[in-house]
User: Fold these one by one.
Assistant:
Number 1:
Amino acid sequence: MKEIPLGFVSGTVVNRTDWAAHLFSLEVHAPASAFPSPPFIAGQFSKLAVQDEEGEWVRRAYSMVNKPCIESDKAIFEFLVIEIPDGKLTPLLGQLSQGDDVLVGTLPSGFMTLEEVPETAKDLWMLSTGTGIGPFISILEEIEQCKRFEHLILVHAVRTKEELVYKDKIMSLLKQYQGKLRYVPIVSREPVSGALSGRIPQQLQTGGLATAAHVPLTEQGSFFYLCGNPNMVHDTRDALQIMGYKKHLRREAGHFSFENYW
Ligand SMILES: Cc1cc2nc3c(=O)[nH]c(=O)nc-3n(C[C@H](O)[C@H](O)[C@H](O)COP(=O)(O)OP(=O)(O)OC[C@H]3O[C@@H](n4cnc5c(N)ncnc54)[C@H](O)[C@@H]3O)c2cc1C
Ligand SMILES: NC(=O)c1ccc[n+]([C@@H]2O[C@H](COP(=O)([O-])OP(=O)(O)OC[C@H]3O[C@@H](n4cnc5c(N)ncnc54)[C@H](OP(=O)(O)O)[C@@H]3O)[C@@H](O)[C@H]2O)c1
């Protein structure tokens, strides 16, 4: 095996969940000594790397889905991955199973965290497509820190029903939040009972999201995190700006921030 590149440590896949043929989660354990404690902040991403046929390390960014934690000297990471048929790394990740090695980045990063949400925000809207739901599940696992909000709204837009992942986890979080958390699934390519149809920007502008969540949108209290498909992020930013919301900057509080996955 080629030398482990700087900024990575060898981890082991301890669990794999297959949600659909092309969509899966990997739980990876890595030596805690390679990370600070806690090993990351909810909402952040790290990197995964696997060697390709030529022996080169292929590395990409992946968000953590789990609550940051260390157990028995192991830093725990869970990743939700969609396999891109012609992708360089995801078909290799798709071959991993329990007991396999995978490199994990030792420098998790990213600013889509609870700390970055302005103090004035009352309702945190988490708008995601596809695997972009991952960091929001991690954020929602920080129940104590999320108590500052009046409402948390998790919006997950996918193509088909089978891609509505982490249903059991979301149901458990809904119970724990006792009404504070709202879950709004959107399925775009087939009718699904209990889910909205169409796309996030259109559902924002027509009031569909606010109605489904039973939470009004207000310039004073709403803050939006956008994550996933860059076209969704682009179109949602446009929609929010038309609706009078401003991009959030550290030097000037606004209403929305985002993370593009490609
Ligand atoms: C900050 C950050 C966090 C990320 N977190 C995740 C994550 O948690 N889960 C995850 O699956 N991916 C995530 N990604 C994307 C990931 O880094 C890879 O780009 C992706 O897995 C494709 O890798 P690949 O080598 O197989 O494809 P490549 O050979 O690099 O091909 C890339 C192409 O695949 C498509 N694509 C890339 N990512 C996705 C995606 N997530 N969903 C749909 N189409 C995509 C785009 O068309 C892109 O141009 C994240 C990216 C960033 C920048
Ligand atoms: N290996 C396999 O068998 C397999 C199977 C399926 C997918 N894939 C791979 O996975 C990738 C798709 O992943 P994904 O389903 O997470 O991706 P996606 O294309 O990002 O779709 C997720 C959701 O985002 C919506 N969306 C797309 N563009 C938008 C925009 N401009 N504004 C608002 N919403 C928008 C989609 O709506 P629309 O439906 O209206 O576009 C869909 O509801 C594909 O590129 C493919 O490579 C692989």
Number 2:
Amino acid sequence: MFDKIFVCLDMAGCPNRCRHCWLGCTPNGRLHADDLRAVAAAFRPYARQLEVASWYREPDYLPEYRALWDLENELSDRRTVTHWELLSVWRAVRDEAYIPWLKTLGIRSAQLTLFGGEQMTDDYTGRPGAYAEILATMDRLLKNAIALRIQVFVNKENLTDLEVVADLIQSHRLEERCAAIGMPFAAFVHQGSCDGENAKRVAIRPTPEDLAQIPPLLVEHTLRHFGQTSLEAVFGQTEQTLFSELEADGTTASLVSEQPVFFVDKDFKVYPNRSAPAPYWCLGDLREDGADKILNRYQNGASPAQQARKDVPLGAMVRACGDPSSRRLFSKDDYIDYILNTYCEVTAL
Ligand code: SF4
């Protein structure tokens, strides 16, 4: 019995194919309310507290999003489940009632993701017109007194486009317009974790000299957002430094939590939400194996990735998969996950 289980079912996928997507881009499915009921019923006997979500890619992507929100609440033990501060830009520009509905949930601030200007954002979001839709969504959010938080993913390919984001903040008076609704405007840049689609772009991950190219306005907002005093603290250390710190590390780790979060994909394969739902994280097929077997595998660290982290000393994986001369920047936790994923891939676990 777990203290709490949070289970998220990928009922519809996502309209985007973001090049940084830490979940990895996989085909969309089309599941139904009864599938969510079945997933909740499967995990219910094993959790003192259960929380259920109908998505883990694009929120509110299905036309019946309101009914699904009600169903999430009905199937969850919390009186009101979390909507986070995420929204569907795709829906925001196609459904007049959507943002006013978000407002009724008590959302005061929402996050939007840019990669630079129009071309760069469309390319990186994987959908023509994405940038124009994000801009239109900003206006609709502000009209409904919901403040903006802009996230910008950075790598060597879009560094020079960051000035366009700083210009947008100023030319659209985003700070002033948020202040007018009594909420702070927020923005931040970061490189993202190095899994899913973003792991394919490891070669263009930022290095220390790139940080000087981040426009001052974005630096100021980033430091405020993360409560840090330097960009180095936000972007982490070079791989070179992390490699020498960890190459002799003999520790192993159990990747098991008393309050796990599980992703269930459109084919009912179950993954812990530690990293991208890759085959080496898979705990089994919910319909074939049942929750009991899957939770046993989870608790015993039996997915290939959990097993590797439990059995193989960290330093051995770092020596096998790290690059001692690389100056690419990582947080330590992201680097360990990147090394573990790479180890699973190269050893074909
Ligand atoms: S990052 Fe989010 S919006 Fe982009 S493809 Fe992944 S799930 Fe979809």
